[in-house]
Amino acid sequence: MVTVDTVCKPLSGWLVRAEQRVNLVWLFLFFSIPSVLFLSLQTPPFQVADEDAHFARAYQAFGGQRLDAALVAVHAAYATLPWHPEKRATLAMRFEADALHWSQDRVDKVHENTAAYPPFLYVVPALAIRAGILAHWSVVDTLFLARVCNGLVALLIGAIALAVCRHGRLAMFSILLLPMSLGLLASVSQDALLLACSALLLALFSRALAERRAFSLVLLLLVVALLLVVALGRPPYLVFSLLLFLPGCLPRLGRCRPFCGALLLVTIISGVVLGWLGAGALTMAAYTNSHASHDNLLFVAMHPISFLLLLSKTFGLYGAFYLRGFIGVLGWLDTWFPSWYYACVPPVLGVVALAEITRSRRPYPVLLLFAGIACGSTLALMVAEYVIWTAPGKAAIEGMQGRYLIPPALVLGCGLPGILKAPAVRSLATLLTVCFPFVTLCVLHSVVIARYYLA
């Protein structure tokens, strides 16, 4: 007699065995390496948001303050493409750009949106630029080399993060393979290494919590270094330093209890980041509207309720745009994916969340701290965009991008609660999740080719 048990038990066992054979690290590399190489080599020069400023920052990091005139000329060759999705990259543009090689001619050009970023997030593209100059390559070929090198290093860090991570591993896998994440990884932007370092930072905390073992001194130094890198790269992520208060992660520092040690480290990290911000503000005072920033900061401090109302209005107006920017809007926010793809990703992320909540339980203080850090970093991002980029009196906060929410989403993924005990459900959700990057891979190629090359 056929019963439900005779059908479901073998199926459940098969699902669990199939999930156990899934290696997320190798799958991540299988999907990400072709995507990053494709985007690095097929996206026209400087057709990633602010890539011209990031490339100039990498050049200036170790090559002096004045820019090579050929770099500026290459940017001018493709200047008609951004924000014009009806225009295409032509052979005439490519021939003009390929003829431009590194020279001794220097020009003065200020990129105030990247000038304050720390140089160590540009080490990889800076070394690639130096190699291209020494090899007498064209500026375009050097840019492609910098993209590939930056992307491969970031992918290596991301693969290590997936290998180390315990709770939140599937969420990390899925978020890192979204088109927006892949687009950032395949650029010379600081966001490539920033995203990878954020993933590694969270993976280290995830492993420490799962094994209930405090960091060794070496790992603690690595964690502090990663916190500094992430917070200096994007100061609102300074909120991530509160991860040091997770119970059981921090060892005793001499006679200091773990809580006191965490408080000391958070204070030191905050001092370094705020000191860097202060130095940058003084340096860039001539290029920014400091009076408007001061007025906006006073408004946030004196009228917090009004600011929260402004925040809710902003999410009401631009929430869908932020979600699509989080999933993937490439180029200068002018390369969109099909509507059906944007509609498919939230349910897939819901399946990911379902797989994560079937894992081991965690203490509620840990879950609350993860949720607080994710929400706090998002709020800090909105405050920063309001203070820096929004003109006083505007009806909504300007400057916010969906891609800024990727690291907070990684935090949230690592902090999902374990509330179900259903191995078969977890296995089915995992198998469904690892199939979706096939869809992303196909759509990504067609979207980029159609945007830049097909009439």
Oligomer kind: single chain
Distance from N terminus to C terminus (CA atoms, Å) equals 62 Å
Task: Count structural domains.
Answer: 1
Name the shape in a single word: globular
Count the strands?
2
Structural class: mainly alpha
Helix share bin: 55-70%
Mean pLDDT across all amino acids: 87
Strand percent estimate:
under 5%
Characteristic key phrases:
about 450 residues; mainly alpha; two-stranded antiparallel sheet; globular; disordered N terminus
Structure in words:
Mean pLDDT is 87; it is low at 1-8. The N and C termini lie far apart (62 Å). This protein is mostly helical and 455 residues long. The chain has 18 helices and 2 strands. The chain has one domain.
Write the layout of secondary structure elements.
Elements: H1 4-20, H2 24-42, H3 51-63, E1 67-68, H4 69-77, H5 91-98, E2 106-107, H6 123-134, H7 139-164, H8 169-176, H9 179-185, H10 191-211, H11 217-233, H12 258-283, H13 290-302, H14 304-328, H15 339-356, H16 364-389, H17 406-414, H18 423-452
Antiparallel strand pairs: 1-2
Short description:
The chain is mostly helical. The chain contains 18 helices and two strands. The model is unreliable at 1-8 (pLDDT under 50).
